[in-house]
Structure formats: C-alpha cells, structure tokens
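Before we proceed, please read the two lines closing this message. Report back on whether the structure tokens fit the sequence:
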Amino acid sequence: MSPEGSTAMTEARLRADALTLAYDKRVIVEDLDVKITDGSFTVIVGPNACGKSTLLKSLARVLKPRSGAVCLDGQAIASYPSKQVAKQLGMLPQSPVVPGGIVVEELVARGRYAHQKLLRQWSPADEAAVADAMRQTEVTDLADRFVDELSGGQRQRVWLAMALAQQTPILLLDEPTTFLDLSHQFEVLDLCAELHEQGRTVVAVLHDLNHACRYATELIVMKDGQVLAQGAPAEVMTAELVERVFTMPCRVMNDPETGTPMIIPANRQRRRSARTELDLATA
C-alpha cells in the first residue's frame, strides 16, 4: 500500500527497493521501498530509533543492506566504484570522527578526494571549491584552527563544508543542525534551501518537525522502520499523523511567516493523558 500523501512514483536517480537493514541480528528496516524525488529538498522525520539515520546510511552506501538494494541511476549503488559514487553523493554523517592533528582547511579539502586523479592532483578548481564551501558555511576564519579544538557547532559547520566541497548533485545530511545554536540552525537550513534552489537534490534527517515543514519540499515520515507518509508538508502533516507517529496530541496551523504547517503541542495535561492511554493499551 502506498504511504499517505504519496503521489505516483516515477523513476528517480536515488531509490531503495525492498530494502531490509539490520545491525547484527536486530532488524531496523524491513522490505522498504522509497524514492527520492529528483531536485527535491526531502526531509526524513520520525521518532528516535525508527530507522531514519539507518535509511540515510544505506542511501549513501555506508550501510550494506541485508536484502534489497539501493539504486543510483537505475543501477545497484554497490556496483559502482567508490570514487564514482563520491562524485554523485555527498554525505554528512551524524557523528563524524575527527582525524587527529588536522586543521579546518585540510579537512574541508578532503571533500575533493573524488576529483583527484593520478595525473591531476590539486588544481585551481579544487582550491576554489574549498574556498567557496568554507565561505558558505562561515568557517573561513577558522581555516588554520585544529578541528578538535573547535566547539560542537563550529565543528558541525566544518563537516558540512567538507560535504559541500565535493560538489555533488545529491547531498545527504544526517541531523545537520546538531550542536548548532538557533541562529546557526536556520543559517544551515537556509544554505540547504539555497543549494536545492540551485538544482541539487538534498536529503536531510531532522528532529524538529517545524523546521522540516518550513524547509522541505517533500517529507518522508517514518515509524518502526516503515514509511507512513510521503509528500509535500502541506499534504501529509496533520494532527492525526503527528499523534499516530509521536503519540503527541497537537494542533497543526499555518506558520504566519511562511504559510507552511506549524505544529503546536497540546498542553501538558493532554499529552500526559495520551501517554497514559497508550501505556494502558499496550500493557
């Protein structure tokens, strides 16, 4: 059965077919079909441990499926050479590990790895891509700082700069606003929106539903390893869906600034009552 709000699925550059994902014996996602709309700003939302980040990892070829396949341009992504994938997909993981003793500019420059060849090493184009990525993420003044000395928010912007330096048509971001203060959260999401408007396909995992509704052109709503709804925020984001997915009574109104759906949680008493009813029903 098609998820709520979904439209007819046409061919997409990036898709998952009958995907089952697991960590050891623990299955997270089972028999999942999903297509990323080309040229969209797609945001994946859902409760903790529902499979959002796991799905993103598989789309980026970081996590090998137990069964099924992720396809890029109609071909199993596992069949491509790593450099070819890196020219098409840029990935910002949730908790990247910082190499020891590396400065910001060096880390961002690693985003150009896929563009290096045996007979063509560092070039003016690489230099320009790194400088532009650092400018867009506002880390130019940190160029000579050691990455492991930065704050969490600064470090997150540096990792994003490295992903941007790859200059890929598809960009996958796992919770890109983690560690950022409110102002920088909006700046990063504004940047993602601008990249989308320039023609990139952007896929992000976000926790904040209001951020997701404000910026996404398409939402994928997950629960328990399955997609419950997919489509434009105005089409799929309802109070009923929020309560079904998050067990949180709410009202959905139009954001007075953007006209996009805005979730207003119910008061404490209503939320406690809903939680109690759920506990009794599942006891």
